[in-house]
Amino acid sequence: MTFLVLMAGLFLLIYMKEPFSKKMYGYVYLAFYLMVLALYIINTTFVNLISSKLLLIITVIVISPLFISFLKSSNESR
Fold this sequence. Notes:
Helix 2 (23-45) runs antiparallel to helix 3. The protein has 3 helices and no strands. By secondary structure, the chain is mostly helical. The protein has one domain. The protein is 79% helix and 0% strand.
């Protein structure tokens, strides 16, 4: 499930050309997204650092601003 949420977030990052209005916020968000992706890869491949449920919760928290931004932009285009 975590993998699907991470890939949905990656799709939204690619689909939306500028997901955030402020550039600095976009860079910070991208850094957090990449850290969660790296944590997922390390957690599933090498060492179990945190539980999978906690990783899913962190992933949903990181992806939710992007999803909200996507919903706002889709409502504005109507």
